[in-house]
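Quick illustration, no need to memorize.
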Amino acid sequence: MTLLELTSLRKQYGPVAALDGVDLSVPAGSRTAIVGPSGCGKTTLLRLVAGFDAPDGGRIVFGGQVLADGATQVPAHKRGIGIVAQDGCLFPHLTIAQNIGFGLDAEASVKAGRIDELMDMAGLDRAMLARRPDQLSGGQQQRVALARALARKPRLMLLDEPFSALDTGLRAATRKAVTDVLTAAGITTLLVTHDQGEALAFADQVAVMRAGKFAQIGSPREVYSRPVDSTTAAFLGEAIVLPATVAEGRADSPLGALPVDDTAYRGRAEIMLRPEQISVTRQEGSGGTPGTIAEINFCGPTSDVRITLGGEQAFSFRLDIPSREPLLPGDRVTIGVAGTAHVFR
């Protein structure tokens, strides 16, 4: 069942179209991530869903109720939607208990019990209730912000870059904790992020936004493995894009003859491989495609290399490879490919 439906949603700021006809269906109980570069329109979309701004065109339907359609604009406080911002937006002069309980309309004893329950849900020690936000770590503050947003039992949670200000290790741990809380509560979630890995790890559905439109919507594995174009492919992670001639399910490419995921297409095309499909070893014997290390930068567990291919189809590409064996510029290597290449049509 669809909980949130966006249809032909548009928002203009002067001559700039922040949103240019966006369509999106969010199933109930799901986690959807909207990912894209800065300025692509993803935060504008979240603000329209939250009710902070009104769309210039299109419709927003939530749980069967029209929230916005040009003539109608339901106020933000009447939408039953929770939101967690990038910095948590906690009240610095209030205690943690007062922050979480802010907006709860209940007797003191009932309110205190609900706050304790929310602290447990967010994985926070109740001893923190008397502290103020500046006495907590960044990850703890984000969990408090989540607990406050959950207090009024929203059916939809909006997460606006909620982990971007955290250190890498803390970001992953906080994201996992937040995901677990939302999943256990059965709350539909819409995450906005510019972090591709975060979107792929968090979501059931990923929507890739570019210049106010969705370039592609699908499961994390689908958008990563079968992106619609090379721009989307490069945004979602490292991609090796090669020229090829495709026929009968195989591509003639600088990396040799490769199986492809489109058996119907015939003709010239670009094909894509992900780095995890490629193995690079010091050249020994036959098998694989020969290449030469043109440039290498040691980065600890991995090395950033540029490999040049010889032959009739001279070509070079970059990728990260494990640093398990020392390689130097000029070394000859053998390149192996696993799986199928994706065809851009």
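The chain has a mean pLDDT of 89.
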